[in-house]
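Subject — a protein and its fold
Encoding — discrete vocabulary of local shapes:
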Amino acid sequence: MTFLTHSKAPIEKLPTGIEGFELISRGGLPKGRTTLVAGTSGSAKTVFAAQFLAEGIRQNQEAGVFVTFEEPPEDLRTNLLSLGWPITAWEAEKKWCFVDASPQPGLDAIESGEFDLGALLVRVEHAVNKVGASRVAIDSLGAVFSQFVNASIVRAELRRLAMALKEMGVTAVMTAERTEEYGEISRFGVEEFVADNVIILRNPLIEEKRRRTIEVLKFRGTVHQKGEYPFTVLPDQGIIIIPISAIELKQRSSQTRVTSGIPDLDRMCGGGFFRDSLILVSGATGCGKTLLTAEFIKGGTSRNERCLLLAYEESREQLIRNAIGWGIDFEKLEEQGLLKMVCAYPESAGLEDHLIQMKHEIDSFKPDRIAVDSVTALERVGTLRGFREFIISLASFVKHREIPGLFTATTATLTGGPSVTEAHFSSITDTIILLRYVEMLGEMRRGVTVLKMRGSMHEKEIREYAIDNHGMQIGKPFRNIVGILSGKPEYVIREEYHRLDGMFQE
């Protein structure tokens, strides 16, 4: 595909201003061309078209024309105000202009003989010239087809409209309805006259959960990222795309160590965590993951580091009460500005919304270390694929901030076993700490081990630990016991232990 890199005929792209879109489209929409945005009902086609104009005004002072075939302008002004776009004010400033082709109340369209969209073309051209528009949005083509029986004439007229937009030199977005998430591009085959560029918006119901995605299906003559990307629509922000495959491994690496807050655990890790590392703490419920999180925060705040705690299982008051029981005063740390706690039920938002909120909190508070307790709780609100993408995006974001991030994950069984979180997270984390219950002679004890410490030697033994009103106390290694990690600990006699140990020594 040599034309893609031909220096004499590059296709210029117009940045849309939609967060994340420039990454997956590699620069924006092809300038001076028309792009079809197709999707099922509720997939945010109108929001995409309106945001294309709104961001042009907000970021580049580029005027836009919105041609509406479906909703009257008054409804659009009201609906789009919730996204933070002052359409009425922009109209007064001659930055935004509506061309109203929506059905009028009480007037039924009667098709009689041949017709054309000549009058509409004149209105669009007049509006473009009136405000000096460089962007045009047409929403939606399905409404045009539904008003007239003769689809072939409508199709020919829309082709004429697309050609006219090209001659006006504007970059245009046309929306079209789809009947299925995966199938024909549009209901009426309108893609044929704007097929140079096609974007698909999807909103499928998977495992009783909606998951919005965007795919650049085709940009003729220019490159773009392949595949589907999750996105969300937020009040006062509009569409935000999460471009996972655009994530780059460019973060720097540091040899600086930071404390875990527990001196014995620092020794087990060979001197503490690396400053820019991701730490996964895995264990069953009640085995001390939140305590280790609190110790991690204490270790940072004792050095005047700002810590951000994102909690999805306990409220702020519960966290404060529990921390006091371990001798750590979260409330006082908050007053000193060293700690910020953000607590939310996982079900209060979708995974994409949680991810964007997390990024916002990190960027606004600018912590020196963060803790998430627990990421397992967030599994409940997304699909398996969505959760994997969420984990990768979050891990990459924290990595690029070059701060230590501690994440807790709950195992499915009391005595061990893997979790979905571990499966997605283990390969991208630098350090894995396992907390395990150990049943011995009718008594439940606890063990901790460092399973992984990327770039550093670390202790391999499983040590017993206790929890008291001073926090976590790590003791001596378990001896003459095998099968702790598998959840089936067994005593072995001393002679057998030495015989097994000798099998792995030269």
Notes: The first strand starts at residue 13 and ends at 14. Confidence is low (pLDDT under 50) at residues 1-7. The first helix runs from residue 21 to 25.
